[in-house]
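INFO  loader      accepted 1 record
INFO  loader      residues=303
INFO  predictor   begin
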Amino acid sequence: MRCSRSPSAAFTVVEVIATISLSAVFFTAATLVYQNISANSRSLSSLQPITLGRSTFQNLLGVDQDTMSVYSAPNHGRGAFAGQLAELFRDDVAAASAVYCLGRNGLNTLRPSTIPYPSGSPVLDTPERFLSHLVTQFGATDTAQFVSYSGPSMAEDLTIMVLQPSGTATALQVLSIYDLDLVAVTGIGNYVAVRRYVDGSLTSYYDILYPSGTGTAFAPAAVHFYRKGLAPYEANAAIQKYMVAEEHPFYLVWWPDPAARTLESPTTPPEPTAPAGSAVWDYYRMGGRTRFFFTVPAFPSQQ
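INFO  predictor   done
INFO  writer      dumping tokens
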């Protein structure tokens, strides 16, 4: 006669051994995960004191000190801050009436809430024309850090001005301003800070210190692509190759990634299957160097 075990019966020896074995597997896996997390925490969270000068840190982060301790790359915690800032940027672009990427060498001191736009002002349909308008309205001294460019911006730093619909026809309303700065720290590496400003006040940022390395610098951080229909009217081949947008002009924008080990690209990367004069090379130079890559519409569209 076959007997069945009642629900209240004790576990058999085989069941106990099997349970202990499974528990050992789970505890071993958990221990390995914890060890990996602890090791990564030690190897990816080193702090490095850097000295840039009081005025530099005051401009970058609004702190009144000469030296700060900064996390060294790679650091996934700083990468999380970068991800949050990237989401803010995408939200701002979605609400924008216009976006202008401005190449820059040196610290930015121009973070206005509004930009005068007097009657008769030109249409600001390219970053070059927008920069020219800033020079007219704010003067050469306040705009001296900005660099005019066509196509790729090979300047070291970048400012992105995001505009929103304005309640007046004689002023442009600034929604937010994003500043990307790369500052060389002698004997240590490159300090990077990406920040968001609203009404001139810092609202969000991430920073990271990359060790000195070899390879090409982090450029271009932004590339402006014009409408394809303008190509027949452009004699300069260096600009003409960026006239590829079928309908709407746009920017490609890259931010440094704190989770990457280096800021530079490889010294001898494989070559893309594209002609040497193609604009694809700008995309190629930045491809794979960071996960923070944006496609930003440029508006108004140049006619």
